[in-house]
Amino acid sequence: MSHILAISGGEPVKKTPFPVWPVYDDTERQALLEVLESRIWWRTPGTRVLAFEQEFAAFHQAKHGIAITNGTAALEVILAALGIGAFDEVIVPDFTFIATASAVLFTGALPVMVDITPDTYCIDPQMAEEAITPRTKAIIAVHMGGHPADLDALREIAKRHGLYLVEDSAHAHGSEWRGHKVGSIGDAGTFSFQASKLMTAGEGGMIVTNDDDIERKARSIHDCGRMPGEWFYSHFIYGSNYRMTEWQGVVLSQQLKRLPAQSLTRTRNAEFLDKMLPQIEGITPQQLDPRCTVNGHYAYIFHYNKQSFAGIPTEKFIQALNAEGIPTQASYPPLHDLDVFKSGEYRKRLTPEIAKAVHGFLKKPFPNTSKAAWETVWLPQPVLLGSMEDMEQVVEAIKKIQDNAKELV
Ligand SMILES: Cc1ncc(COP(=O)(O)O)c(C=O)c1O
User: Fold this and answer.
1) Domains recognised in the chain with CATH numbers
2) How far, in Å, CA of 143 to CA of 399, rounded?
3) Is 97 a catalytic residue?
4) How high is the pLDDT of residue 3?
5) What was the pLDDT predicted at 17?
6) pTM of the model
């Protein structure tokens, strides 16, 4: 093995690529051809999206599934279905993709950020409870990287305060909390099928719920306010067009069939990394809560302590890792630091009264989010579909960088 870091011109540890994503085979090809030739490309007269909704809901142990154009829209629809809007507040973790908060703004409500736990990187239930005000209507938990948020605590808090609990499960297809699939442990959950996700049709989303009333409202909102069995041009409530196409439905049905086996491979590989990486000083994997019985692993996340790597910053470490042939994906910046919140632009979505109020939470320190944002390294999920040898090379690459970190100072 070369002892010169690849970033400095040495041989990379990994010379062969990791598995490519997305995975597909003749089943997708055949199914797409069938949709093409059927000439039924949209869901309303079609059967493919409907079938996928039922398959996905059953897989996630939920009564209902509503397919949506994407994961952001799924959040928008569910919040609207829960009646959230002007004057309301929704508690969200500071560490997440913008969609979790932008969907709240879309309804006209105020997203209130709270910090995460330092070990699982999911919303801190105690801080969520402290942020509750008379205006609070819901908490959105994000299952970060596939690891469920503390659903026991969050459910209990939501129940005690009469709030809705929404699970943003964009990262968590197949994840389980105490042996139950995520999504409908709270009042409703949303999923994304965007290109990097654990199942994909390029874009796509899903709402799951066990509540018949929520399902009825969400389904209507996603289809222009229509109601089942009623005349096509009758519109009963505010809605819009969030319908998935038959192309997406048919691809996602095939993707779902592959998920359980892929999930087993990701788990096996993550377990190996969980064992090996803590042996490297300065590397701490995202902690697995024993109540998380399956982590779907949208990413493998670990904390990087630069002190154990001659002080080289996270960004430089990531560049060195990429040069060794190990791909990474970016972590999320803290929500409260994003331009839309810093500039005050978000206030345009709020009622004048709420818009001019002081939103003190934006000035709070979010130390755990800050660490997660700037000091974690994310291995994208296709890496976890690799072989045991691939995983050994991930470990070897990190050790190599540590052993030679002084070169990069
Ligand atoms: C946590 C989280 N929520 C919501 C979304 C939105 O999903 P989409 O990209 O399908 O709109 C994403 C993903 O991109 C996400 O990572």
Assistant:
1) 26-255 (3.40.640.10)
2) 29
3) yes
4) 81
5) 95
6) 0.98
